[in-house]
Amino acid sequence: MTTGSKLPPAGAGRPTTLLQRRAASFGHAVRGVGAALRTEVHLWFHAAATAAVLGLGLYCGLQRWEWAAVALSVGAVWGAELLNTAIEAVVDLVSPEYHPLAGRAKDVAAGAVLVVALAALAVGGLVFGPYFFRS
């Protein structure tokens, strides 16, 4: 997990120990999620949906395995959306003018998010459905 900027030379504020490098890497990742949240409207939707799902899970009193399924689904959607954002940024960098392959790369990345989101929706139906549609 690195940023596009170059690291300063050793001894000039550059992390030297493994722990310092891991902490710096974690900081880059958090900064990346924050940057995506500030610029990507789809992530705002995912944030709202995540809050709603967490609230619904608390309301329903989900069992541990249900929380695990929900957490994996939420994490998969967020991960796919962040990867899509990264792919779009790289494609824009290397192909500022329209190119059919650049468009295809962006469409496929967006399609991956759609597939994961639909799978998460199915998990949501399987987990929450019985709480609302008991016979």
Q: Care to describe what's here?
A:
One of its GO terms (molecular function) is metal ion binding. Its cofactor is Mg(2+). With about 140 residues, the protein is mostly helical. The chain folds into two domains: about 1-40; about 40-130, Helix Hairpins, CATH 1.10.287. It has four helices and no strands. It has helices spanning about 20-40, 40-60, 65-95, 100-130. Helix 2 (about 40-60) runs antiparallel to helix 3 and helix 3 runs antiparallel to helix 4 (about 100-130). It is flat and about 60 Å long. The termini are far apart. The model has no long low-confidence stretch (mean pLDDT about 90).
List the total number of helices.
4
Proportion of residues in β-strands: under 5%
- Low-confidence blocks of residues: none
CATH topology type of the largest domain: Helix Hairpins
Helices and strands: which structural class? mainly alpha
Number of strands: 0
* CA gyration radius, whole angstroms: 19 Å
- The CATH class assignment of the largest domain is Mainly Alpha
Topology pattern, helix = H, strand = E: HHHH
Termini separation: 49 Å
Tags for this model:
single chain, 135 residues, mainly alpha, Helix Hairpins, lipid biosynthesis
Tell me briefly what this model is.
The chain crosses the membrane at residues 43-62, 69-91, 111-133. Helices cover 79% and strands 0% of the residues. The protein is an all-alpha fold and 135 residues long.
